[in-house]
Structure prediction request, 203 residues.
Amino acid sequence: CPYFDFSTSQETCDESMREAERFIGYARKLGAPWIRTYTLNTPSRQATDEQWERSVAALQQICDAGAVHGITFPVETHQVIHHGPTLADTSASTLRLLELVNRPNLKVALQTPLLGETPEESAERLGHVAVQVQAHNWIGATDTSWGQLTYLDSGDLDFASYVRILKSRGFDGYISIDHPNHHPWEDTAAREIRYLKRLIARE
Prediction:
């Protein structure tokens, strides 16, 4: 799970390219099929043409390097709540990124909420390109705060409906528990595993 930064400057891009090379080596040794991918640290609406072009070229290069070894790069959708902004902060900008890079091993790790859209809208627009869902739920999220993080079945998001939308769009990937420390993580893991098994069986 590296934190690549292709957009900020050529210097950060060059360092991220070296980091990508290291992580491809790690993935090969571990037999890991994915490397989580960021485009930090620029919001999509503020990015210049140069920043987009640099990020796209870098992603094309690492995707080509990873494809030889069967490695996929899921771009984590992310707005600036607990970490830096990215080019993938809306569904539209994420789809634009995938279209410009135009590599079959660039996919999506879907984390919501995204800017200006509900999680359900994001699921509808990105479910067909998502291979992983970064799953969490919250009470009272705003544009700048998660609010109170909580269990998947207890927050403002109707998580069961969210999963139904994803599946209707072809999602058949992994659901990863994100931000588990709202309760002791062992308790969170046990509860969420039980809930997700029931949910997947029902859906």
Summary: The first helix runs from residue 10 to 30. The helical segments are 10-30, 49-67, 91-101, 119-126, 159-168, 185-202. Strands lie at 73-76, 106-110, 130-135, 137-139, 148-150, 174-177. The longest strand covers residues 130-135.
